[in-house]
């Protein structure tokens, strides 16, 4: 049996416990660049994950606080997956990954760090992107800062992210 081992993500999980939902609170701050919100639609938005598995790890979420995909409206569902498709294209063009992991964790036992707000994870993958560093040194090597990653990806999203809440 193979195991996914990502101890660096514990910081993000512990940081989120007992705090406001990031998918509700960060868009209300209207500070998209600082919060790494890369695109806003009418019903959904795309943001960089602050505790990524790899560079370019994006999350797509509805503005409305909804725990399950079954509770999404048809309009939210459609915009969320159009944003997912757009994100895949942007990541392909900007970063040139060899593949992707795309998924939705529903409920905390499934790995959802914010189980009360459904969101899609898009993780770019490169052949050989797992190394000995997380195992031996408890360290994940990311080749680009989140701010640089944001600036690299931002031009691939159109229209530009709006600064006010939808």
Plain-language structure description:
This protein is an alpha+beta fold. The protein has one domain: HIT family, subunit A (2-Layer Sandwich). It has helices at 10-16, 22-28, 32-35, 74-95, 133-137, 146-153, and strands spanning 37-40, 44-48, 58-62, 99-103, 120-125. The protein has a 5-stranded antiparallel sheet, with helices on both faces. Strand 1 (37-40) and strand 2 form a beta hairpin. The protein is globular. The termini are far apart.
> What does the radius of gyration come to?
15 Å
Second rung of CATH, namely the architecture: 2-Layer Sandwich
Oligomer: single chain
Strand adjacency order, main sheet: 1-2-3-5-4
Strand content: 15-25%
Give a quick account of the main beta sheet: strands, pairing sense, barrel closure: 5 strands, antiparallel
* Unreliable spans: 1-5, 131-139
Task: Label the overall shape.
Answer: globular
Question: How many β-strands, per DSSP?
Answer: 5
Keywords: Hydrolase, Nucleotide-binding
Domain HIT: 22-132
InterPro entries: AP-4-A_phosphorylase, FHIT, HIT-like, HIT-like_sf
Organism: candidate division TA06 bacterium DG_24
């Amino acid at each position: 049996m193979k195991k996914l081992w990502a101890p660096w993500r514990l910081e993000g999980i512990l940081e989120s416990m007992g705090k406001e939902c990031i998918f509700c609170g960060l868009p209300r701050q209207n500070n998209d660049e600082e919060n790494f919100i890369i695109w806003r639609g009418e019903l959904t938005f795309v943001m960089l994950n602050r505790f990524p598995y790899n560079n370019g790890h994006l999350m797509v979420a509805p503005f409305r606080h909804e725990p399950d995909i079954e509770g999404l409206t048809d309009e939210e569902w459609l915009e969320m997956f159009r944003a997912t498709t757009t994100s895949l294209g942007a990541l392909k063009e900007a970063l040139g990954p060899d593949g992707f992991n795309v998924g939705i964790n529903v409920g905390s036992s499934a790995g959802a760090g914010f189980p009360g707000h459904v969101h899609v994870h898009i993780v770019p993958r490169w052949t050989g992107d797992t190394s000995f560093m997380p195992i031996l040194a408890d360290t994940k090597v990311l080749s680009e800062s989140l701010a640089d990653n944001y600036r690299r990806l931002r031009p691939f999203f159109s229209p530009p992210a709006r600064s006010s809440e939808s």
